[in-house]
């Protein structure tokens, strides 16, 4: 297969970026999208040109670092996958593919297709954890309803890739925050700090420049792990309850 790639190139956050067109040929349909970028970079290096910077780690759909906006969709034209799980067979031979970084004020471009997603880390630091003092009982010794455990596990599937932010017209991080809050809200270990957690994480999200949620469900549609917006409803309940208790 052969493709025409229109790739966003940007030296750093302060520089003006632009699309640069590249041609790739002889690509197997079973080649992953990131492997195709590797092939392109090898060709660029051989030609003495600057390779394209893009983020990745596990290449197994677990870490969420391979955050690319491809042909107008977060992670590309497939459902419930990350970019590293996307294969060239999902495109037509000879197709023009546009590759961009996440577009969000809270995720500034580091270089080319790499963005700084430390904003998510700061939200987690604000309240996405459980504090404990002294001896902690074995978690397996605490009875939890299966329904609650399943909901918590579903929310915990969030890998923090940022697709929800990238695909939201407001750049909202509500699905990410809701998944983290919901995962702990359904467990007894997370109830002790529930009020503080909801307020602190929402406040940090607003402080970092993420937009408001307008419930278009775009985040759920593009989430590679299928996180439900029902968790956003739970976050809203947790937040309102915390405000009432003030």
List the helices and strands and how they pair.
Elements: E1 3-9, E2 18-24, H1 33-46, E3 69-70, E4 73-74, E5 96-100, E6 109-111, E7 114-115, H2 118-127, H3 146-156, H4 163-167, H5 174-185, H6 188-191, H7 194-207, H8 218-222, H9 230-245
Parallel strand pairs: 1-5
Antiparallel strand pairs: 1-2, 3-4, 3-5, 6-7
Helix pairs in contact: 2-7, 3-5, 5-7, 5-9, 7-9
Please tell me about this protein's structure.
The protein is an alpha+beta fold. Helices cover 37% and strands 11% of the residues. The chain is built from 9 helices and 7 strands; from the N terminus they run ββαβββββαααααααα. The chain has helices at 33-46, 118-127, 146-156, 163-167, 174-185, 188-191, 194-207, 218-222, 230-245; strands at residues 3-9, 18-24, 69-70, 73-74, 96-100, 109-111, 114-115. It has a 5-stranded mixed β-sheet. It has a two-stranded antiparallel sheet with strand order 6-7. A hairpin with a 2-residue loop joins strand 6 and strand 7 (114-115). The longest helix has 16 residues, at 230-245. The chain is elongated.
Widest β-sheet, arrangement of strands: 2-1-5-3-4
DSSP summary: helix tally: 9
Task: Report the principal-axis shape.
Answer: elongated
Mean pLDDT across all amino acids: 94
Helix content: 25-40%
| CATH class assignment of the largest domain | Mainly Alpha
Distance between the termini: 61 Å
Q: Which sheet architecture does the biggest sheet show?
A: 5 strands, mixed
Extended strand count: 7
Broad structural category? alpha+beta
CATH superfamily of the largest domain: Alpha-helical ferredoxin
Secondary-structure element order, N to C: EEHEEEEEHHHHHHHH
Pick out the low-confidence regions: none
Q: Within the CATH hierarchy, at the fold level, what is the topology of the largest domain?
A: Fumarate Reductase Iron-sulfur Protein, Chain B, domain 2
Total number of domains:
2
Strand content: 5-15%
Q: What is the CA-based Rg, rounded?
A: 20 Å
CATH architecture of the largest domain: Orthogonal Bundle
């Amino acid at each position: 297969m052969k493709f025409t790639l229109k790739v966003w190139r940007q030296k750093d956050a302060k520089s003006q970026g632009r699309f640069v067109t590249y041609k790739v040929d002889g690509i197997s349909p079973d080649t992953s999208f990131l492997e195709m970028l590797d092939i392109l970079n090898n060709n660029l290096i051989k030609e003495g040109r600057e390779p394209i910077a893009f983020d990745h780690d596990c290449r197994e759909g677990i870490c969420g670092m391979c955050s690319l906006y491809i042909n107008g969709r977060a992670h590309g034209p497939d459902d419930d996958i990350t970019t590293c799980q996307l294969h060239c067979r999902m495109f037509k031979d000879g197709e023009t593919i546009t590759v961009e970084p996440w577009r969000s004020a809270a995720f500034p471009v580091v270089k080319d297709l790499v963005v700084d997603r430390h904003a998510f880390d700061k939200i987690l630091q604000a309240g996405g954890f459980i504090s404990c003092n002294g001896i902690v009982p074995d978690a397996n010794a605490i009875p939890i309803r299966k329904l609650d455990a399943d909901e918590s596990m579903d929310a915990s599937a969030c890998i923090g890739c940022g697709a929800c932010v990238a695909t939201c017209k407001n750049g909202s991080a509500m699905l990410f925050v809701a998944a983290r809050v919901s995962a702990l809200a359904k467990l007894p270990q997370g109830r002790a700090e529930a009020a503080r957690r909801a307020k602190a994480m929402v406040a940090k999200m607003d402080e970092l420049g993420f937009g408001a949620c307008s419930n278009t469900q775009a985040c759920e549609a593009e989430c590679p792990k299928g996180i439900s917006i029902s968790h956003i409803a739970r976050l809203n309940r947790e937040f309102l309850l915390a405000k009432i208790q003030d």
